Amino acid sequence: MMWLPCGCASRRVVSSFNRRVFRSYFHVEGRRRFNVAAFMPEAAGIQGLSDRSTLQEFSVSNGESFWAAAARHRLSWVSPFHTVQDCDLSRGRIKWFEGGKLNVSVNCLDRHVHTCPEKVALIWERDEPGSEVQVTYRQLLEMTCRLGNLLKRHGVKKGDCVTIYMPPCPLAVASMLACARIGAAHNVVFAGFSAEALAERIRDAQSSTVITVNQGVRGGKVIELKKTVDTAVDGCPTVQQVLVAMRTENPVAMTARDVDMEEEMLKEDAVCEPAIMDSEDVLFLLYTSGSTGKPKGLVHTQAGYLLYAALTHRYVFTYHDGDVFGCVADIGWITGHSYSVYGPLANGGTTVLFESTPIYPNPGRYWEMVQRLKINQFYGAPTAIRLLLKYGDQWVHKYDRSTLKTLGSVGEPINTEAWEWYHRVVGDGRCPVVDTWWQTETGGICISPRPSDPDAEIVPGMAMRPFFGIKPVLMDTEGKVLTSNNTSGALCISQPWPGMARTIHNNHQRYIETYCQPYPGYFFTGDGAYCSEEGYYQITGRLDDVINVSGHRIGTAEIEDVVNQCSAVAESACIGYSHDIKGQGVYTFVVLKKDVDVQETDLSRLLNDMVSKKIAKYACPDFIQFVHRLPKTRSGKIMRRVLRKVVERDLNSLGDLSTLDDPAAVQEIIQGHRELCGQQQQPPPQP
Ligand code: AMP
Questions:
Q1: What's the CA-to-centroid distance between 410 and ligand 1, angstroms?
Q2: How far does residue 542's CA lie from ligand 1's centre (Å)?
Q3: How many Å lie between the centroid of ligand 1 and the Cα of residue 8?
Q4: Which alpha helices (H) appear in 258-301, and where do they start and end?
Q5: Can you point out the beta strands (E) in 126-183?
Q6: Averaged pLDDT for residues 7-17
Q7: Residues 6 or more apart from 572 whose CB is under 8 A from it?
Q8: Nearest CA to ligand 1 atom 19
Q9: What is the mean pLDDT of residues 390-417?
Q10: DSSP class of 685
Q11: 446 Cα: distance to centroid of ligand 1 (angstroms)
Q12: Backbone angles phi, psi at 188, to 5 degrees
């Protein structure tokens, strides 16, 4: 199925014809009385609630009372907050729980160590199946404290920012929590980013300390992470030390600034006094792509973020004490932060850290892991589901999945075919599938089919219902709120919530311009959405120049910046196109400088190498088309709409071309595209 390209979100994607109404397996005949305290202890004191939808209404119309009750109940405070919120969306001022003091690592560790020290906090699902490692809350606290003390010994202070470049592993989680313990912020950089991308993020965050591992292991391959850090750090004058943990037994070259992390941790005390933090102190930065070339370091703060991650984890996934939560996202993305680390640990849960790939050593990997670890909630990405369904049902049927209770999807739209397969084959038709919409900026899930009444319908491929305290609205092109249903528009959120990012590191103006100014008084998400007749939301894609490759956000401008650095290139335009497995692929048009004489295949290879080296492999163009000129308006703006239509083979809706400077450019592009992609099929998945 094709997803709507950006900017034309008016078609209804899930027709009522192919819609299946799904009823949850714990449906009880007849109407039950709503026991609010049993469903949500945080809301026990709220009077007059008749069902979950009235609780939802209350959380929106009485946001302050709702969030105050939730914060008091779910978090442990050193001293209570005096002001629930002080927010002004139009000015980008967001403050929650002011006056409150707490420590996030205490909330994630110490309070559970007091009640159940030997409970498993982390299950590290290492690359080689069957070699998992379990870490209890007691052990994780000890690791965190030793590491906190080590960071302090190396001069890391409250307010500093530590960059973490590690694959998912217990020491990466301990590193995040150690920062939180001593009041430093962390900046986790996905360990698939190149040295240059890492260096850019270290410099922007002004980190003096980087934490890494000697080598990573993924899909049976060894990845030289320490070498990447060495290259990155050479261009980062702020970095004074690199803490190196040993993921493999292979020694790596150590320099004077490198510290053998595990050896030094052993010398540290196993107790580390937690720093007392204000609710609005920074917890972490996380870089993500926007529509300009420069990634933005979104800033999340302590109490609001933690509360939101914990609450969404508990209620979207119906997570209960004793469940094993399997989020397979990398910790380098916000999903890994909120649903591998902070949400589950704040709730005292058991969480899986997945180091491998969905097809290593074979396409049964996820389900073999579900069987072996007895996973109850599985949270993954549509791109992996689409890949696995192509390998056939037998890889799923081989394994016992009876422990599964909820299946989650995140990162990009999940098409109906993938949704149905996930539900029918993986979940044996009995597990609710929650398509969760959210973004790095929102801190946690904002729209998702659950929580809702246990027998409430779930529509395939729709995120559907706003979470507590979230009030989505759709805007038309004039900036007016669309009040009726069965309509499409720009997705905004009309009131602040505790999990939202507070600013962009070092650039509050960019925060205001990106999120607050497009629709004054509202938070603009950058996504388009459709609101169905019944009031359910379906995300239709980005409205800006951001594309989503296998769930990874990347700005087209970021790729163009790299391509344009090649001395043979005069200019380029990069767009996303529908891709069977990745969701979107990258298609780049390149105009060469005059008199450049190179083989196109050689240049394509060079450009791919450059993108891989400067950003990451996933950002490499799938197609590079060389053209003499790009379609431009008379004012010189590239008409991306036209390029998109050509690549999506939708030549009947090229639209008004009268403003084009040189209409012949379009014909050349159509012809070149036919030659490049004419017969080309997407390759079948490789085992
Ligand atoms: P990131 O900040 O990297 O998590 O990317 C967030 C973006 O991914 C959103 O703005 C959406 O464009 C897309 N996205 C995330 N979840 C979904 C979903 N369930 N359905 C559709 N798009 C999604």
A1: 7
A2: 9
A3: 17
A4: 261-266
A5: 133-136, 161-165
A6: 33
A7: 560, 563, 564, 588, 589, 590, 591
A8: 437
A9: 96
A10: P
A11: 11
A12: -85, 125
How far does residue 412's CA lie from ligand 1's centre (Å)? 5
- Around 600, how many Cα atoms within 13 Å sit in the side-chain half-sphere? 11
Q: How would you classify the pairing of strands 324-327 and 350-354? A: parallel
State which ligand 1 atom lies nearest to the alpha carbon of 552.
3
Percent of the chain whose pLDDT exceeds 70: 94
| Least confident window among 437-446, 509-518, 519-528, 647-656 | 647-656
Instruction: Give tens-digit pLDDT for 448-501.
Output: 999 998 889 999 999 999 999 999 999 999 999 999 999 999 999 999 999 999
Confidence grade of residue 427 (pLDDT, cut at 50, 70, 90): very high
Distance 519 CA to ligand 1 centre (A): 20
Measure 56 CA to ligand 1 centroid, in angstroms: 23
Of 302, 309, 303, 304, the closest CA to residue 327 belongs to 309
The two tokens of residue 347 are 């709730």
* Amino acid letter for position 225: L
Contacts of 11 (CB under 8 A, 6+ apart): 4, 488
> Can you give the pLDDT at residue 4?
27
Ligand 1 centroid to Cα of residue 551, in Å, is 7
* Nearest ligand 1 atom to alpha carbon 548: 8
CB 121, CB 136: distance < 8 Å:
yes
First to last CA, the chain: 24
Q: What is the pLDDT of residues 229-245, one digit of tens each?
A: 999 999 999 999 999 99
Phi, then psi, of 30 in degrees rounded to 5: 80, 170
- Of 436, 439, 447, 578, the one to substitute when testing ligand 1's pocket (max ligand atoms within 8 A of C-beta) is 439
Distance CA 548, CA 528 (A): 14
Mean pLDDT of 550-566: 93
SS3 451: coil
pLDDT at 680: 52
Omega prior to 361 cis, within 30 of 0? yes
Q: Are 544 and 507 in contact (CB under 8 A)?
A: no
Query: What's the pLDDT band for 6 if we cut at 50, 70, 90?
Result: very low
The Cα–Cα gap between 577 and 448 comes to 26
The atom of ligand 1 lying closest to the CA of 553 is: 3
Which residue's CA lies nearest to atom 8 of ligand 1?
A: 411
What is the CB neighbour count within 10 angstroms for residue 565? Answer: 11
Which of 412, 419, 447 has most ligand 1 atoms within 8 Å of its beta carbon, as the pocket-test mutant?
A: 412
Nearest CA residue ID for atom 23, ligand 1:
412
Residues 517, 526 contacting (CB under 8 angstroms):
no
Would you say 576 and 554 are in contact if contact means Cβ atoms under 8 Å apart?
Answer: no
Distance of CA 354 to the CA centre of its chain: 15
Residue identifier of the C-alpha nearest atom 6 of ligand 1: 439
- Average pLDDT rounded to a whole number, residues 630-645: 86
Quick one: pLDDT band at residue 258, thresholds 50, 70, 90?
very high
Read off the pLDDT of each residue in 294-308 and give the average, rounded to a whole number: 97
Residues 519, 490 contacting (CB under 8 angstroms): yes
Q: Which residues does a 6 A CB cutoff place in the pocket of ligand 1?
A: 288, 334, 410-413, 435-440, 463, 525-527, 539, 542, 548, 553
- Give the residue, out of 13, 291, 539, with the most ligand 1 atoms within 8 A of its beta carbon, to mutate for a pocket test: 539
Q: How confident is the model at residue 277 (pLDDT cuts 50, 70, 90)?
A: very high
Q: What are phi and psi of 205, to 5 degrees?
A: -80, -10
Say yes or no to pLDDT of 686 above 60: no
What would the pLDDT profile of 507-531 be if each residue is shown by its tens digit? 999 999 999 999 999 999 999 999 9
Length of the chain: 687
